[in-house]
Specification:
The chain contains 4 helices and 11 strands. With about 170 residues, the protein is of the alpha+beta class.
Length: about 170
């Protein structure tokens, strides 16, 4: 059996494949070595029922520059630091939809949400929202949300603070 393998290698069979595998392993090793020395890590969505965001695989940068957090930024928060409702091991990946000075209005009768006068979404749950009426975000606050009306976010727990951001997230898949 081993002699057939060596004969195949000498004949050229699988030589290109083995070269590609060795090159891939070497590149992977070098990439991982460089990656572990940086502020980057990978994250993935663990929920199977309702996802907050449609992506499932993330590149996370823990070297957060809060001045670069803009509308639509994807961020990672520690669930327990955001609200005691969450367990210690829960991380939240959410989108920033409002920042300092923005007005968030929740209509209690229609259970609708408006940000700066523009319709944002609804409150389908029977769970009471963070507030009814107008709320203006303070200097260090952001309003976070998922893309589904059923996600748990600022609609129910109020704004997050910039200091609660653990990582800037970038969707990969």
């Amino acid at each position: 059996m081993l002699s057939n393998f060596w004969f195949s290698l000498r004949k050229g069979f699988n030589r290109a494949f083995i070269f590609k595998v060795v090159a891939l392993c070497l590149c992977s090793f070098l990439s991982v070595s460089a990656f572990t020395e940086s502020s980057y890590s990978f994250g993935y969505e663990k929920q199977n029922i309702v996802r907050c965001l449609p992506q499932v695989f993330w590149l996370l940068d823990s070297d957060v520059d809060v001045s670069k957090i803009t509308y639509g930024s994807l961020i990672k928060l520690d669930g327990k630091k955001y609200n005691n409702h969450f367990n210690d091991d829960i991380s939240l990946l959410k989108m920033v939809v409002a920042k300092k000075g923005d007005a968030v209005y929740i209509n209690s009768k229609e259970r609708t949400i408006f940000i700066n006068g523009s319709f944002y979404g609804t409150l389908p749950s029977d769970k009471p929202p963070f507030h009814y009426g107008y709320y203006t975000l303070k200097d260090n606050e952001i309003w976070i949300a998922g893309t589904s009306d059923t996600t748990i976010d600022s609609r129910y727990f109020g704004p997050a603070t910039l200091s609660q951001i653990e990582a800037h997230a970038y969707a990969l898949l």
